[in-house]
Amino acid sequence: MSSRLSRLSSLRLIASPLLSSRRLVLSHAAVAVALAALVAAPFATARAEEAPTVFAAASLTNAFQDIGKLYKDETGKDVTFSFAASSALAKQLEAGAPAAIFVSADTKWMDYTENRDLTLKATRVTPIGNSLVLIMPADKAKDVTIDKSFDWLAFLGTDGKIATGLTDSVPIGVYAKTALTNLGQWDKVRERVVGAESVRAALALVERGEATAGIVYSTDAAIAKNVKIVATFPADSHPPVEYPFELVKGQDTPAAKALLAFLVGPQAKAVYAKYGFLVK
Fold it and tell me: Where does molybdate bind (predicted)?
């Protein structure tokens, strides 16, 4: 009997450290799980509150950067902007690029995204417009009047070029070609037109003196330090320059709707007006 008690006592002594060890392992595992949850929580929150992306026409760059700061001050939330020609942005949406809002510099490319079920027509708002102008490097600028009698070849000289957007796709280029066609001048100057990938790229060509003149929006000319507006195209020579805003399909979330409302609201409109956009 005493021998059995001795063996049982020995087993208890052996088992006790084993049980303590298991409890310690389980305790450490629980702590590890808790720490992992604490570490993961901020990242999960960040993903849930990821800044919405706005695909916007290049001519809105400066205005939207200011409005983004206002939105951050007002709501504490960031906004991500991607600026390019409206044609390029529409194609990116078609290829599956993620964005919450699309802002085009013409109705053509917004219609394009609607027709492909990429944006939500019911959310379209068109709060601003722009003007089409002719610019030159400031040190060579000479004011002119654009009408059907304007001699473009004499204006450009022997080998002068006109910079604008790509005339078959980029909105500023399409507006430029339409205006020149309606004025009866396109066939005369088409070989002198240099198409750039965006209005800002066309502006840069004139700023650097690589083009004699440029056809851009008045708001882009206004922010450039070394170019001058020498003429404004007649309003009836081209369709109105308008900027439709729409939510991207599948992105009509409360956050995206709130941002869209801010982009077309009074604070944003004050910024558009500051930069020379035609506010409706």
Answer: 59, 86, 199, 217
In 3D, which of 154, 158, 176, 155 has the Cα closest to residue 167? 176
Tokens matching residue 31:
């702590």
Q: Same structural domain for residues 168 and 140?
A: yes
Domain that holds residue 118: 53-129+242-279
pTM: 0.81
Binding site feature residues for molybdate = 59, 86, 199, 217
Angle at 109 between CA 116 and CA 177, to 5 degrees: 145
Give the residue with greater pLDDT, 41 vs 245: 245
Of 166, 245, 160, give the one whose Cα is nearest residue 202: 166
Determine, yes or no, domain membership for 45: no
As a whole number of angstroms, the distance between CA 161 and CA 164 comes to 10
Q: Which residues pair with 215 in a beta bridge?
A: 134
Binding-site residue set: 59, 86, 199, 217
Average pLDDT over residues 224-240: 96
Scored b (16 or more CB within 10 A) or e, 182-219 reads ebebbeebeebbbbbbbbbbbbbbbbeeebbbbbbbbb
Looking at the fold, whether 224 and 191 belong to one and the same domain comes out as: yes
Domain count across the chain: 3
